[in-house]
Amino acid sequence: MTPHAGGAPRRRGLAFLAALCVVALLRPLHRTLQRSMTAVHVAVESKPHPPVASPLFATRTRSGKRAGKNSGAKALGSGLVAAGQGEQTGRSDAPLFFHASPGSTGSRTLYHAACSSGFPSVHHKSFCISRHRGIDGVSDSVVEGVRAHYEVLRLYLLAADCCSLWNKGKIKLVEGRAIVLEKGDDTSVQQELCSMPLGEWSSRLQSHLKRVVRSSLVGLFDTPYPYLARQVLDLANAKRRMPPVIALTERDPEGWAASRTRNHGILVCREENSYEKLGASEFDVLGCAERAHAAASNGGGEHAVLHFWDAFRYRSRTEPVDPAFQKGLERQMRRHQERYLPLATYAPDFFGVHALNGQNTKPKPVKEKDVAVDIRRHILGGKPSQNDKSGDGIQDLQSKWRKRYTQPLTCRGRVEWTMANDTLVEHYHLPKTCEDGDNPGSAIPLI
After folding, report:
1. Helix (H), strand (E) at residue 429
2. For residues 261 and 224, what is the distance between their CA atoms, to the nearest angstrom?
3. Strand ranges, E, within 2-107
4. Beta-strand relationship, 177-180 and 59-63
5. Which range (125-139, 213-227, 389-403) has the least confidence?
6. Which residues fall within 8 angstroms of residue 369, CB to CB, at 6 or more apart?
7. Left, alpha or beta for 255 (phi > 0: left; psi -120 to 50: alpha)?
8. Per-residue confidence at 5, pLDDT binned at 50, 70, 90?
9. Residues near 309 by Cβ (< 8 Å), separated by ≥ 6?
């Protein structure tokens, strides 16, 4: 049989149509791949900087009973997580107990009571997360929160130390960079750290603070959190399933200001950058930086490059008492208490501010075990958050918490930061309370 004369052209036509179909099918896939590559490129470009202002990475070490016995030194990449990396998604189902009062208001009593009640907590340089050294058996989310806490604290202490060096005349600026006027090999680290722009510092501080609040840490006590109160509460409402339990231990502003300046060196916002010019104080750290930038830009758009001492100053406890400074502290403390006392669900009268009938009597001694009972009562109660859309009600969460927080966290650790070589050192200042047996060195370190 002779093939049809038009067979070859028809086959070529069919092949052409098939090719068009393949192209049509592949085109959407090509566009999808392009979008994916673009997204990856954007993600890489917008990746946050590590929390050190120089190529010199912060070294993390740990020790046994004392900070001098170091082992297991780690660079930043293998130790604490850099800002923006390793972030959790979703909303934490852990409770949050936030002491909004500043230092010198009984925060240590609250911290130890929270630890005794089984709630993972931090207090300035101290932490409690277990009955033994290290992080073995501790929730990853708790570990993430404690590590983020020490990055927040490190940045806060960095600002204080750089301002202290500036006050002493040990820093000068050369082409916008801080030059430390001291001899020694460690000054290069200090110069890099003190050269960090204020805007970058604020951004990193907020990034690590977000990691703290979205973690499963329960207790936040003492510096720097009362001075970041607005940001802590905003993040808590967004990142926690339940609204925070806010504690406030009221104190007479005059007595508090006198105690604060007499017993502590403090980082304060300069009076010209303070809220409504009420006076220099420790409060509203990030707001202070924002106002300093606003003043420097003078309404001209882009922020000027500022340094720590442009917004803050360090006040040593050895400085003579300045009545004007003292009055500013009092005004700021009064405003802070007036703002957060109405939000507090737990406000024990540690200092006898509300003595009966105005009698000038000494308040009864506060017992840690009584405070622990109060903290458990407030944490294991509460009202559901508007953000709670998962279907688990307050009763379900309370039931989980009662099973989760059962054992006192007796092992109290501490982390020290040394600016000279940008090092964090983990040690245990109450070693007899840690259940480590005969081999405490085998613990998996926090730092």
Report:
1. none
2. 17
3. 59-63, 70-74, 97-99
4. unpaired
5. 389-403
6. 113, 116
7. alpha
8. very low
9. 162, 163, 166, 167
